[in-house]
Design a protein that fits this description.
heterodimer; A: alpha+beta; 3 domains; nine-stranded mixed sheet; three-stranded antiparallel sheet; 15 helices; 16 strands; 40% helix; B: alpha/beta; Amidase signature (AS) enzymes; eleven-stranded mixed sheet; globular
């Protein structure tokens, strides 16, 4: 018998902050260098080496905290989290235990089930910590060698921990999508999941409603979620797995300790990970090598000045001030700050907002995707495109020819509408000229007129090709309109 | 020519005046080492190329280059400070072959000042101990009586001076590790204010207590050494930004009007031996003759100093020593390959065999005290008491300028005597750990010999950053004849 249940999900997101150097030493954080080349005595954990805090990591953490509506601590400190692992050269990770830099906050995003509704996820905290290195297990050909790359060791991470406020895998994905967008807008992280700049772990269980009683299944932490799609798929799978397990065993929260499962993306299953019997006692204590951090009002002011307009504020602005549909506003905002700027510059140059939006969505984004380039590398400026949109609005050329101009610009960057029209042989056409052309064509094609009169309105399409042959600058829309008018006047 | 008890400053002056070269001075001490080291074992190893470096100093001086007032002087470095291109063993099997890829800031400053490193001195393993018996490389012997301990953990540093094997020595002091061996060996030893000298490159035992400190026969040499090593280091967040005074220029101020406190709980302590108490009284009278006034001071939390120290230090140590796992450097022994986790087996085997019993004892103590459920009762409580002890000092220094007392309850004891009784060993630290817990400067000053011919010493303690006051008082006592720099001659072979 099917029993109704609610899914309860909390997410822990590790974000790599885009500082130039590591959290406690001067080594570069750049991705992709040869293994163990971006290291020094400090991040190698050599005896006697000492950490020195990177102030810009603090600034980025404050900026993020403010954008996530968090309380920012006036005093924060560093703690050691002790555990042994080969990619953790000091035998402890410098993290923040009981005085995180960012306290409670929240993030809002639109409900994937009802896009006009907003969901709010409360955040417990966001704290800074250093990343560990990377272990590569080479078990090919029977070898059991493990290699360790410590380039990543000491890279600053901000761990953003949510309350279990998410109630569907889709909502979890939407939360992550909005969080990533916000962080990208803030410029605090590149959020590149392939390079590990953004990593998510999920805690999930079910609240099962049986005979008016709510039963909670044991909490499972799902790791190894390498994409947002993986998050969604893993949580769909895991919620069903927990339901099936409950049906089979009846086990509820408290019957078993929290377990860790890994997501196998290829097989599409979650798999229990090896558990150490001594459950994690990290023996946190304040790091005596580092002094507590006092956050000044100047630092807060500075961070506030760096916030910029948030994605949700821009969406609202596009809807309220420019009358875009929420869907269209979201498409533009989701493309990132650069596309929003492009849109704003088109408006400033006089183009209509809705048409700017559709030109961006249909043409600009298409070209960007095809050529795999960013908006900052796009060769047609917002001002140029605005001029084109205005020319169409003014009836100087039709949309089809405007797209020809657009294509021409891609090949010949920097020219204006006039020179493109010239190059493409587009002439300004008088309406009366087209009307005369239509009368001529209708007279030559009585069959088409007859078909149209019988209700086959599509028959007129054949005229457009013919009109183009006689006058390349004939606007198809105009040809159709005028032909209809002429025939209907005869009826 | 006897260079052993000549002050390092005087030696440098002669080198500067080309009365003698740095090479000659270095040769002198190297031949002393060749003669004496077999009886004392003050060094873990000698530095390679000391004569070459001395020669470089000579030629730089010859070319008219201005170096520091200690340029050309042979110096010994405790083997807990990283020296590039050389081993830094920490007296441990774990690091017996370890060569650091960098230089400790304090050592780099000495090298830049033209001092010539002759060797790395023996120590208790990872500076944990008070007798230098826990060294993986074997114990150091007290030059005044080779059947006795030189103290520890900087036992090699103090013994190298007492046996005339160098002109200056650098140690480290976490709970008395400079002052106690200095006292046992009849030399001067200073533990500066926490943060006064950079800890960068000082292999950590207990980070909130560790401090580099110089040892010498003469107080003015400590001052000259401090002038070189002290100062802020942007590689050490806990190093202090305060300006470094001219320690040498501040020596020689009269003590008239100086108020000196005697801690009642220390001089009346049951464990304090009479001859040490006599040394304190003798020093007290000498200070009075020099114009100081004496006040009795209460230290209500004196009895908690050792227990507090033996929680704070092992807790920090348990974490600091986690990096020695046999993975990246240091001693590695593969465990049982068929174990469920060969990795865990390797880490466990490497640590079990790489560390000696005292280090393991302290790691276990600290790990236990930091564990969930015990943290509040032990570590947190210890931090609270640490604050109370610091307050005792603050209160005392409202009334007095300096504190006078013993360094150790007894003179040097026979080797092996306390090896199997760690608590007795720990109690030997009862007068020294306070300065570390409160982060204050303290100095051990020789005060003659016992009837058995063993050195005794007194301790002076001062408020934070008042090293000048300490050094000046010790210097005045030296000038007034509280002690005469002496070297113990090796037993006839």
């Amino acid at each position: 018998m099917e029993v109704p249940y609610k899914i309860v999900i909390g997410l822990e997101v590790h974000v790599q902050l885009s500082t130039r150097t590591k959290l406690f030493c001067g080594c570069s954080t750049e991705f992709g260098a040869a293994p163990n080349t971006q290291v020094c005595p400090v991040c190698l954990g050599q005896p006697g080496a000492l950490p020195v805090m990177n102030r810009s990591a603090i600034d980025l953490a404050i900026r993020t905290g403010l954008a996530l509506n968090c309380e920012i601590a006036s005093v924060t400190k560093w703690d050691r989290k002790n555990y042994f692992y080969p990619d953790l050269p000091k035998g402890y990770q410098i993290s923040q235990f009981d005085q995180p830099i960012c306290g409670p906050g929240y993030l809002e995003f639109s409900d994937p089930d009802q896009p006009e509704q907003m969901l709010r996820v409360r955040l417990i905290r966001a704290h800074l910590e250093e990343d560990a290195g990377k272990s590569m297990h080479d078990e090919a050909a029977g070898k059991s060698a493990s290699r360790i790359d410590l380039n990543r060791t000491g890279t600053p991470l901000l761990e953003i921990v949510s309350e279990p406020d998410l109630h569907s895998p889709q909502a979890a994905k939407a939360y992550l999508t909005e969080l990533r967008l916000l962080l990208t807008y803030l410029g605090v992280s590149d959020c590149n999941m392939q390079e590990g700049s953004l990593r998510a772990d999920a805690n999930i269980n079910l609240h099962i409603d049986r005979d008016g009683e709510t039963l909670a299944t044991p909490i499972v932490e799902v790791k190894n979620l390498n994409s947002f799609r993986a998050v969604e798929r893993a949580l769909i799978y895991e919620s069903q797995r927990q339901y099936d397990e409950w049906q089979r065993t009846g086990a509820v929260l408290g019957d078993a300790p929290k377990r860790t499962f890994g997501w196998d993306d290829q097989r599409g299953v979650t798999i229990p990970q090896r558990e150490k019997e001594e459950s994690s006692d990290y023996r946190y204590f304040p790091d005596p090598d580092l002094v507590p951090v006092h956050i000044t009002s100047e630092q807060l002011e500075y961070a506030r000045s760096q916030l910029g307009e948030s994605p949700s504020a821009i969406r609202q602005r596009l809807v309220n001030e420019h009358a875009l549909k929420p869907y269209d506003a979201d498409v533009i905002v989701s493309q990132g700050r650069g596309v929003v700027d492009y849109f704003d510059r088109m408006i400033q140059a006089g183009a209509n907002a809705k048409r700017s939006s559709s030109w961006i969505q249909q043409e600009v984004l298409r070209v960007m995707n095809e050529s795999n380039q960013g908006i900052e590398d796009f060769c047609i400026t917002a001002e140029q495109l605005s001029e084109l949109v205005l020319a169409v609005d003014a009836g100087d050329l039709d949309t089809t020819r405007a797209k020809d101009v657009f294509q021409y610009w891609l090949q010949h960057p920097g020219s204006n509408v006039q020179s493109a029209k010239q190059a493409l042989g587009i002439k300004d056409v008088d309406q009366s000229e087209i009307e005369a052309l239509c009368r001529e064509l209708l007279a030559e094609n009585p069959k088409i007129v007859a078909q149209y009169k019988e209700g086959n309105t599509k028959a007129l399409g054949a005229l457009i090709g013919a009109a183009k042959k006689k006058n390349a600058n004939a606007d198809p829309r105009l040809v159709r309109e005028l032909s209809q008018k002429i025939i209907e006047a005869e009826l | 020519m006897n260079l052993c008890t000549l002050s390092a400053l005087e030696l440098a002056t002669r080198i500067q005046a080309r009365e003698l070269s740095s090479v000659e001075a270095t040769q002198y001490f190297l031949s002393r080492i060749a003669e004496t080291e077999q009886h004392i074992h003050a060094f873990t190893h000698l530095a390679e190329g000391a004569l070459d470096r001395a020669e470089q100093i000579d030629s730089r001086l010859k070319s008219g280059e201005q170096l520091s007032p200690l340029a050309g002087v042979p110096i010994a470095i405790k083997d807990v400070l990283c020296t590039i291109g050389d081993r830094t063993t920490c007296g441990s099997r774990m690091l017996s072959e370890y060569r650091p890829p960098y230089m400790a800031t304090a050592v780099q400053k000495l090298v830049d000042a033209g001092l010539v490193i002759v060797g790395k001195t023996n120590m208790d393993e990872f500076a944990m101990g008070g007798s230098t018996e826990s060294s993986y490389l074997g114990p150091t012997r007290n030059p005044w009586d080779v059947q006795r301990t030189p103290g520890g953990s900087s036992g090699g540093a103090a013994a190298s001076l007492a046996a005339g094997m160098c002109s200056l020595s650098i140690g480290s002091d976490t709970g008395g590790s400079v002052r106690q061996p200095a006292a046992f060996c009849g030399v001067c030893g200073l533990k500066p204010t926490y943060g006064r000298i950079s800890r960068y490159g000082l292999v950590a035992f207990a980070s909130s207590l560790d401090q580099v400190g110089p040892l010498a026969h003469h107080v003015q040499d400590l001052a000259a050494c401090m002038a070189i090593m002290a100062g802020h280091d942007n590689r050490d967040s806990t190093s202090l930004a305060a300006e470094v005074p001219d320690y040498l220029a501040e020596l020689g101020r009269p003590l008239k009007g100086l108020k000196v406190g005697i801690i009642r709980e220390q001089v009346e302590h049951a464990a304090l031996e009479a001859e040490v108490r006599d040394a304190v009284s003798h020093t007290q009278r000498m200070l009075e003759e020099l114009g100081a006034s004496i006040l009795e001071i209460d230290f209500p939390h004196q009895e908690y100093a050792v227990p507090t120290y033996y929680l704070v230090a092992p807790c920090e140590a348990s974490s600091n020593l986690s990096r020695y796992d046999g993975v990246h450097y240091g001693y590695r022994e593969l465990g049982d390959a068929s174990a469920e986790s060969p990795l865990d087996a390797m880490i466990s085997r490497s640590r079990s065999r790489g560390f000696g019993p005292e280090v393991k004892r302290r790691i276990m103590l600290g790990t236990f005290a930091l564990s969930a459920g015990y943290y509040d009762a032990y570590y947190k409580k210890a931090l609270q008491v640490r604050r109370l002890i610091t307050q005792d000092y603050h209160r005392a220094f409202q009334d007095v300028d300096l504190l006078l007392g013993p360094v150790t309850p007894t003179p040097a004891y026979p080797l092996g005597e306390k090896l199997d009784d760690p608590v007795q060993m720990y109690l030997g630290d009862l007068f020294t750990v306070g300065a570390n817990l409160a982060g204050l400067p303290a100095i051990s000053v020789p005060a003659g010999f016992t009837s058995e011919g063993l050195p005794v010493a007194v301790q002076l303690q001062a408020p934070a950053l008042e090293e000048s006051r300490l050094l000046n008082a010790a210097f005045q006592l030296q000038q007034a004849g509280l002690f005469t720099p002496q070297v113990a001659e090796p037993p006839a072979t």
